[in-house]
Write a structure and sequence with these properties.
The chain is an alpha/beta fold. Helix content is 34%, strand content 27%. The strands form 2 sheets. An 8-stranded mixed sheet has the order 8-9-10-7-11-12-13-14. Strands 3-2-1-4-5-6 form a 6-stranded parallel sheet, sandwiched between helices. It is globular.
């Protein structure tokens, strides 16, 4: 593999244009070599618009390209396993959008294929790589808010009712699309896995969860309260509550180029927050750069997410919510 990681992208969706393309462009150790679309002419149009050397009219063509080192998979959830496994078998590293798969069994197959091929598989939780996430964890571990007691995470927006994310066969549902961030954050900040899971949901007519509430218990008597919804105003908030203060992350999983941490080092009411400035950063560029470093190292580097542990929690959440809706 060349020193510069040459990426190929399987699809021309919103996340590609809004996040991945600017991320690659801002990363010195990465270049976008090819882009594919199964819609005739679309890949060529995007290639011309974004200065991409090669356009492919099929995913198979891109994966077979010997000049591609790594593949970004932004497709709908039902396609993650298929194309990740195909890319791995072709010797390509894979950066796969969240959630990693529709089921734990699919995730295990993906990881097994990548392990056998000796390639890196990383789930695209870009927020983990942003310097704000790392600084918040550092403050937490330094005891800035005492012992962690509560994690709060909310993520919602009003989704058009024709969107594919309301189709169960595509891996749709608020939990898979939005709640996965809160679960990932609770595992990131506790550096542990939950010991108990409770969940309730309101279901859409297609069978997916429209609104989901999750309660997770972690070792050390830490609790996490997570909610997500496709039928609510936009909210993207996380808060870490300790016995000596709290850390607030505005726009928790979608920080802009400029972001900050609100830190309250007291339990006394109306204590003012300190504003902890964070270096300007594009979280997608942070993600691409971290992925390239993992490729060079030959293994995922912390705090990268391999996806399997998060998938296990999400699958149990969904099972618990369905069981609680019976009757």
């Amino acid at each position: 593999m060349s020193q510069v990681v040459r990426f190929g992208v399987l699809g021309c969706g919103r996340i590609v244009q809004r996040g991945f393309l600017p991320g690659v462009a801002a990363t010195p150790g990465a270049v976008l070599q090819a882009i594919a679309s199964r819609r005739p002419g679309v890949a060529q149009q995007w290639a011309e618009e974004h200065g991409v050397p090669h356009a492919c009219d099929s995913y198979e063509e891109l994966i077979a390209d010997p000049d591609i080192d790594a593949v970004y998979v932004p497709a709908t959830g039902d396609e993650h396993a298929r194309w990740t496994i195909a890319a791995a078998q072709a010797g390509k590293h894979v950066l796969c959008e969240k959630p990693l798969a529709r089921t734990v069994a699919e995730a295990e197959q993906m990881i097994a294929a990548c392990t056998e091929a000796g390639v890196i598989l990383q789930e695209a939780f870009m927020w983990r790589q942003h310097p704000r996430a790392k600084k918040a964890l550092e403050l937490l571990q330094e005891g800035a808010i005492g012992s962690l007691r509560i994690i709060l995470a909310s993520f919602s927006f009003d989704l058009p009712r024709t969107d594919w994310r309301l189709r169960p066969e595509k891996g749709g549902g608020a939990m898979w699309d939005l709640g996965c961030y809160g679960v990932d954050a609770s595992r990131f900040f506790t550096q542990d896995e939950p010991t108990a899971i409770h969940a309730h949901a309101r279901w859409w007519e297609t069978g997916v969860d429209m609104t989901m509430q999750m309660a997770l218990a972690f070792p050390g008597d830490i609790v996490a309260n997570i909610d997500c919804s496709f039928e609510a105003p936009f909210r993207c908030h996380a808060e870490l509550v300790g016995d000596a203060g709290r850390i607030v992350l505005p726009n928790a999983f979608q920080p802009g180029e400029e972001s900050l941490i609100l830190l309250q080092r007291s339990t006394v009411r109306d204590t003012p927050f300190e504003e902890v400035a964070i270096p300007s950063a594009n979280q997608y560029a942070c993600q691409v750069a971290a992925f390239c470093k993992s490729i060079a190292a030959g293994h995922l580097l912390d705090p990268a997410e391999d996806g399997l542990a998060n998938m296990r929690v999400l699958e149990q959440v969904l099972s618990t919510a369905r069981a609680n809706s019976v009757g």
